[in-house]
Amino acid sequence: MSDTVGSAQISTVKSPLFREVRKGEVRRHIITLTVRNELGVLARIATLIAGKGYNIEGLSVGETHEKGISRMTLEVIGDDVIIDQVVKQLRKLIDTLKVKDLTDTPHVERELALVKVHTATPRARDEVLRLTEIFRGRIVDVSSDTYTIEITGTDDKINAFLELLKPFGIKEMARTGKVALRREGAGQEED
Amino acid sequence: MLRKGADIVIEALKEEGVEVLFGHPGGAIMEVYDALYRDGGIRHILARHEQGAGHMAEGYAKATGKVGVAMSTSGPGATNLVTAIADAYMDSVPVVFITGQVPTHLIGNDAFQEVDIVGITRPITKHNFLVKRIEDLPLIIRQAFYIARTGRPGPVLVDIPKDITQKLSDVPIPSLEEVKESLPGYKPHTEGNIQQIKRAGKLIMEAKRPVLYVGGGAVQSEAQRELVELAELMKVPVTTTNMGKGAFPELHPLALHMLGMHGTYYANMAVYNCDLLIAVGARFDDRVTGKVEEFAPQAKIIHIDIDPASISKNIVVDVPIVGDVKIVLRKLIDEIRKEGAKIIFPEDRREWIEQIERWKKLKPLTYKNSTDIIKPQFVIEQIYEATKGEAIISTGVGQHQMWSAMFYKYSFPRQFINSGGLGTMGFGFPAGIGAKIGRPEKEVFVIDGDGSFMMTMQELITAVQYKVPVKVAIINNGYLGMVRQWQELFYERRYSEVDLSVQPDFVKLAQACGAVGFRAEKPSEVREIIEEALKVQDKPVIMDFHVDREENVLPMVPAGKSYKDMILEDGKKAVEAETMYLVG
Question: N or C: which end of chain A has fewer CB within 10 A?
């Protein structure tokens, strides 16, 4: 091929070079935000995440000890790189004060579940009561043929408990979604 | 003092130094228009369609650097603004949009002319507000301006229910300090991390084949002096994006002009072969990078941007610097000077500059002119010459936009106004009106396509009403030219629904509106009518240039392809891959 670029420095070289394109691992992320409790703040956050084509798997929102400031905990399954983008964009929102992806930071997380389980027989009542005690749950409502149990803990614990209750028949269930806090002394705070 | 919400709006706008509003009244915003009338202190431009008002406010903001303001009523008034809002969002244009809303007790009732404009515009505004209490009104308006103009600028919408504009309150207008304190979650980083700046300085001195890649952020922060200083000090060639035009003077010997899909051969070759790319207020848009894997494949990248979310979004960078372009460049130059401003490999740097000179000579931007048919590029060159390169150019979207980017040479920031991100056909004409209103001392040329012009041509009467002497050059090829070009190149000339040869007589249209109209059908007439148009200073002028119908915009890197797939002006491919690599 003739030297169309007109220079002796050009060599007919090698294989093409390629730029590295970041692709992250797809996994579950847990993101906490402190936000100003302004009109539409939840919609703004949800819109941003939906705009990336992701579904919010878990969400909890509640007021903090400071007036007008709420804390949210979000669970999103997604590509590390895109979640990193999401976090940066969440930080840009006017009403967010702090945003942190806790996934790789030591943190404490808890969830609460209410489970209504069939307990029509005395044996079932015994068995469920025992399981509840083992898992440090509490029975918060009783009817002639159901118990409603409150249980808190990590994902694993709640899932294990639910698994054990399945044979009795779960009638209804509600989970709060996770709340999480960074362990003190672990990693830097960011805004 | 007790006054209506509507009066508070006007008072807050004046506090922000607003001189002109672009808008269209209607039921829900009537109180504000009444207050405007009673006050008499702010000029209002009555657009004939809210979209026009929105683009005028954008053009005003882009040309002046001030915050533009567009105002409309609720419902359809607000939805008509949506395209302009999205456009301002994509191009980071500081515009405050004020919309009327149905009274608070009717919100959510599907009331007459009700639409949830805050919900609709949530993903296309930097921030938006629904005013629920009159006590919040002055603070919200000032917050809107503060958010719109600081950090990475962008559109902010304030939706005001009618009853809020009618209520009385004595709430004072807050000070700027109070505004800042009221936004604890909003703190744009402007300064840049000094360690990263030092690293960048070192890389620039050590580089053998550096290139500066400059985007709209450099225009926004008005960093031309710093850019020229850095480029000259370190002998770095400079390519600008479509949005970055004017940030670096295009007649400067180090100027490579535009890069990317319709970039110059030499800019794309330089970027492809560089070993250090210094991105300044640019965001690695797909129209710039083409196939990301093959974009500047050998280069280390320094990325200076005010928006942390723009960094490493599309491409992994080696040295990220979050900060205002002007401030960071100043520090960077200081650091480099502190280190003696030494180019470590002067021989390589000299060869690099020479290589670029050879590329420039080998494939300059060019076209085949003709004596019997008007070439679109010729029209733009003639406008350039007639205006001595001093006019502000506003364009629509399509072929004419790219020719305007290529064949007019820009020398100052805010000189080239177009819809870069959203690619809004119909942007150019109203934006040009807004630009002329903001910069009356400048000649403003709207270089438009026949397709683009027809999307917002109702604003002709607005320009006549306010005696805005914009010069509109319609590059009339009777086609939706860019779509036709793609159909020619990628769809085997199946020209599906692009023929616009049935069109108004633009000269008569101009006359019907009380504007001036000219037509050129031969190359010899082109300069003549431009000169005639320049004489008109009290009304808009339409120049209808009948150009070669099937002229293509070249060079072109097909979408998603790499620079080495660039199609040149003679229709040939740029170069085979093997010759693209310099010995490093």
Answer: N
